[in-house]
Design brief:
Elements: H1 9-14, E1 22-24, E2 28-29, E3 31-37, H2 43-56, E4 69-74, H3 79-89, E5 97-100, H4 110-120, E6 124-130, H5 143-160, E7 163-169, H6 186-191, E8 194-199, E9 207-214, E10 220-227, E11 230-233, H7 245-255, H8 261-269, H9 271-291
Parallel strand pairs: 3-7, 3-8, 4-5, 4-6, 6-7
Antiparallel strand pairs: 1-2, 8-9, 9-10, 10-11
Helix pairs in contact: 7-9, 8-9
């Protein structure tokens, strides 16, 4: 039997721990994350934007980033396709962004490859694996096997102090909870530190919602729009003052009880009554505006 190691509440509360470090402020902390979406929905473009933003120290979806090296395992692409995408996103290359078309699988060398890269690039902050399926070994999709399979990557992210993002797919069945649509068992969701789900209402639409949840981030729903090749935050909905014309008519009817329906209708066709009606209406609008 292993020795049980405990810490008291007082010890924990009085210990000065290192603060949680974010690769993308308020959105991507150190740890293991899943970015999921339907095939060809634009998740790989979003992942590439993320890598570029970290490598250049630029904002990602209007959130500040820590600048450092990024490693992108683009396991379903070619260097030619990556080159085309890079030119769509930027004119200035970064010497802190690296790509690889091949990787070992989880538990069979992938962790060593990442650790070695970290030893050669001490400022490594982000690793993206596109896609998770390309580095999996387990064929079983039970909760226990899914959870256990991702544990080595979760431990590695904590050990190296980096963010690892696994690009993954959604199942076809719709669900009111977008995180339940992630392909595989809930063991995947339970193991990782955070989840991102990119959803479009229509495949041809340039609009999408990025659903975010995690242990160290607040639950968020970010409305995104496609501008060229980039995903950007959509303009926030601006509150517009209500159209008070209908309220003015109502108030006028209440205040001017002598205005019977037939008189109002006749007044619409009589210039004198119509002008009088408008004058009263404008006065009522003015009152409502002052109250607002």
């Amino acid at each position: 039997m292993k020795e049980l190691i405990t810490k008291s509440c007082e010890e924990i509360m009085t210990t000065l721990y290192k603060p949680i470090m974010f690769t993308v402020e308020g959105l991507l902390a150190q740890g293991l994350f899943i970015l999921a979406g339907s095939p060809k929905v634009g998740k790989s473009w979003l992942a590439l934007e993320l890598c570029l933003a970290v490598a250049k120290g630029e904002k990602f979806l209007d959130s500040s980033t820590r600048q450092g090296s990024a490693l992108y395992f683009c396991l379903e692409d070619s260097y030619q396709r990556i080159q085309n995408r890079l030119y769509e996103l930027t004119d200035e290359p970064s010497d802190k962004l690296f790509f690889s078309l091949k990787a070992d699988t989880i538990g069979c060398g992938l962790e060593d490859q990442i650790a070695k890269f970290k030893s050669e690039h001490d400022d490594l902050l982000l690793v993206v694996i596109d896609t998770l399926q390309m580095v999996r070994n387990e064929l079983d999709s039970s909760y226990g096997s899914d959870y256990a399979e991702l544990l080595p990557l979760k431990a590695l992210a904590e050990q190296l102090g980096i963010s690892i993002v696994l690009v993954h797919h959604l199942r076809k069945a719709a669900d009111s909870d977008p995180f339940n649509m992630i392909s595989g068992s809930t063991g995947l969701n339970g193991c990782v530190d955070g989840l991102f789900v990119l959803l479009k209402s229509k495949r041809a639409s340039g609009q999408a919602v990025l659903h975010c949840t995690g242990r160290d981030i607040e639950d968020q729903e970010l409305s995104l729009t496609r501008q060229g090749a980039r995903w950007v935050l959509a303009d926030e909905h601006k509150d517009t003052p209500p159209d008070i014309f209908a309220f003015a008519v109502h108030d006028l009817m209440v205040e001017q009880r002598t205005f019977k329906a037939d008189r109002i209708l006749r007044g619409f066709w009589a210039i004198r009554n119509w002008c009088h009606f408008l004058k009263l209406l404008f006065l009522t609008v003015s009152k409502l505006q002052k109250r607002a």
